[in-house]
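Archive entry. Fields below.
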Amino acid sequence: MQKALVLDAGKCTGCKQCELACSFEHEGIFNVSRSRIRVFIFEHEARFVPYTCTQCDQAWCMQVCPVGAITSDAATGVKSVNAATCVGCKVCTIACPFGTINYNAITGKVEKCDLCGGDPACARECPTGAITFIDSNLAGYEKMQDWAHKTDTAPQAAS
Amino acid sequence: MSWTKKILRVNLTTGSCTPEALNMDWARQYIGQRGLATKYLTEEIDPKVDPLSPDNKMIFATGPLTGTGASTSARYSVITKGALTGAISCSNSGGYFGNELKNAGWDMVIVEGKSPKPVYLYICNDVAELRDAAEIWGTSTWNTEEWIKKTHQDPVMRVASVGIAAENGVLYSAIVNDLHRAAGRSGVGTVMASKNLKAIGVRGTLGVGVNDPEAFMKAASAAKKVLADNAVTGVGLPTHGTQILMNVINEIGALPTRNAEDVQFENAGDISAEAMRETRRDGTTNLVANQACFGCTIACGRVSRIDQTHYTVVNRPEYWGASGGLEYEAAWALGAATGIKDLEALTYANFICNEQAIDPITFGATLGAAMELYDQGVITDEDTGGVALNMGSAEALTTMVELTGKGEGFGAVLGLGSKRLCEKYGHPELSMSVKGLEFPAYDPRGIQGIGLNYATSNRGACHVRGYTVASEVLGIPEKTDPLVTEGKAGLVKAFQDATAAVDSAGICLFTTFAWSLEDIAPQVDAACEGEWTVDSMLEAGERIWNMERKFNLAAGFTGKDDTLPRRILKDAAKTGPAKGLVSSLDKMLPEYYELRGWSADGVPSGETLSRLGL
Amino acid sequence: MRHVIIGTGPAGVNAAETLRKLDANAKITLIGGEREAPYSRMAIPYVLSGAISEAGTRLRQEPGYFDRARINVISGPVARVDTQHKAVELVGGNIVEYDRLLIAAGASPIKPHVPGLDLPGVHHCWSLADMRAIEDLAGKGDNVVLMGAGFIGSIILESLKSRGVNLTVVEVEDRMVPRMLDETAGALLKSWCESKGVSVRTGTRIEKVKSGTAEGLRVHLSDGAALDARLLVVAAGVKPNTEFLIGSGVETDRGIRVDARQQTSVPDIFAAGDIVRSRDFSTGRAAVMAIQPVAVDHARIAAVNMTGGAASYQGALAMNVLDTMGLISTSFGLCDGPANAQSAIALDAGAYKYMRLEFDGNVLTGAQSLGLPEHIGVLRGFIQSRLDLGGWKERLAENPLRLAEAYVGIMNGV
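PREDICTED_STRUCTURE:
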């Protein structure tokens, strides 16, 4: 059963515990500027929106990588970056229409959400249930997928 | 770890920004933030210095847990000699600024001297520069934040700034960060503006490490669970914010009303948490959302929208967006202390306080005092420029909050605070303040312990120096009777010392509705080098308290200043459970001094000081 | 079904993989133009800069990958295509028959008509063979001249500089990367390069190159100056490799003409990648867009249609990303925009930060950025989905830096 991160902005308070957890998991220190999930804060609308890669089927990042550094796990659907192969060309960062794969100038590689190998730290630390890691067939995730399709560059080719 | 071990020293007179190593001996004794910065300040300034002279310094300080994964790791404090009080001042704020400063690699920023022209401090990790603030001087905190972010092309930069109130000499100006979080009390913003420092804009991407990552995550996770499972931090605060207290405190007869003429406000319900959730004429509610500060798993912050049809904003769409809503203290000061029941007017006044960086507690309390003097005929229409300043007038509130920010008309007088205003009109007894700082939303006649805390609080009357309300009203950690004085000296001391430690750690005091030092010490211990236990933190707290006291005594305060306004000591509560009671401060103070190891006139003994390494 | 693919670059390899995914039984043959295993030209600069080894340029590095995918990789190059008999003739005479053919033969660097470009010490930076030659001539402290500061030139610039050479870049146009960046951004990039010790001579032409100097080459410029150099790297643009199609019946016009299904004028022959002249998403006109994302899109669509599916291409969106000694620049879609377009600009020249957005009404049509790489992919999302910006249009016009916020906001109904 594939599981997916479900981001429910309605429950988010903007605390950024997810960003803290993500950076701690991947970098060993607390550094939200290095988090692969990001909470956008809309002050005047009082909305707080967690945002990260949906591991979309289209996988633009993976498709455009000139050296095949991004791979998809057949079992989990997670698209992850092999840092040893990545040359840091950044083409994936402009190809991903969601802007959820980013370049890290310190390592010279790109980074994206890898679902922490199956136990996402962001979901674990979210205090309000705004981020959950559940069966991807459940509603909510589909909504995000719809959005992914809407932004598809070649919808027929993908299906 | 988890200190960055670096201090940024900014000399505004010379324009230099210089890194320094953190004094780790002091860090081990004073933890960080409030304690450690106060140590630096008291070592570096003359206690008798004029708060608004270039010789005063101000320190923006984070704590060891700031920026870590600990819940409520947002906090930073501003430490200086207070403009309003002349006493030691430490104002604490949340939002996102503190985390950013720590991530830029600085435990604290020490600001000294005075710039020849308005500047702001730009910090991006190791880069720290003073930049020209000509374009933002004379503008609000909201405009300043937006302008700095745009100028540096960084929408996620964090900004702490002063508004026009501080520039116009309002003595209780705050420093506002992230639009509506504030280092609010005792005039820290006024000190900042006196130095021609408009703002600090910071971006930090270096991260915050902890000493023992595994132990830290374990301690932090366990502590978060304690917050989630607790009725106050898990349900009450997220749902209603601190405003949950409005009806509670009113019920027990401890809501200072109309400049403390009464202890209950008949319209408390209209300005309560519950009212903020009621559907208005326009079909919406005042409360829009609750918002967390950085890292906070409680999320008590209120975000509100003003009714667009309300007279204050009807043709002013710039105030139609959501912004920081009423917290309990602000709702009390702007509402109960002035007898005003118009929730929308209060929200508008609160917005202006954020926009121009005004402490709403002191402003509301000062306005309440002025209203009483106006109703008595002492202050006249001539003084107010024709504004009817009757107790309970929402129009007076919303007009005066604007004028105070601008320093215009009677606003310039309100900007002095209640102590100076009441003295000016010959009625010093009508200022509800201690050491020049107006007391907040708990009446010492109905909550005896808090009166002792007000009287002895080092920054002047203040609830967050020793929040005995937790015990006396909410039963945390155990229930004590708010109407009795027995045991309150010990309670106050225990709360004050523990609070000093919490304020020095980088976390929010509100955690202590659920956390004791038993929950906090393991987090500090795992995050930091050295051994941190409940005992060592409590001892640090007591050390900090005595250090602050020493500074105040050297600044010219004496035991005689450990008192309460005459009204609180002499005029009995008229209604409610405390009816007939005054504050029996005299029954608690001597015992308090003794417990503290101070002389009968409130001076720490040599033995006490040496026990604490002072 | 026999699928034959000419070209082993990203378009060819991605097409082969998609074909295999769609048709488990097909016979798939990949014909390479060079005597090399499939590799990525885009990775070459990273070998030069030392970030990866030569092996790191290989496409699908896992040993035995193509065998396991049952993709037969053979060496060309291709001499001609016999469309009548559905056969590809290799140089040397071997014949490969096909049922469906994909032409993904890529492009080649242009050698301008400048005297002396055939001298030893003058190289393109296009193939692995070029790369090996450059490695020998571009050592620490060597004088190197780079002809062309277009997109590819600028990528090479970065890798040459990282080798520690004394580098001079000569660009005939008035600014760096003129087709990607506007004057402001181009000028900023130039001053950035200069601050990093690279000499940049824009508005300057290389007139001739002579040999016989101590270092090897003397490069004469249009402003009268002459530069001695050990190496001259020529990056003056590329042209589609269509020569072998002359007389085949496959229509070309500065690139192979294809329909929206990536099919050429000849049935059963498709084309993908840098060799194709396809529809530009922004202008609707046919254009060659030699970039990796377009090559990959082409390949996927061609493969679907080659296996009997129906996929059509909505057009190639021009987009590029460049890292010039740490300064990251990007461009998307129409950089200059139509005359009536509205632009919004944020500029902090001192910090080398720039963002320019182009709007057509409530839709974003183009963008370029300098020094602001975070979440930059949303620009593609905005442009390619022709997202109605609604109330965010005004906010973006006011502050273009809020683009990620705008994207997430619109997506979440804020």
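CURATOR_NOTE: Chain B has three domains: 6-203, 243-437, 444-513+533-611.
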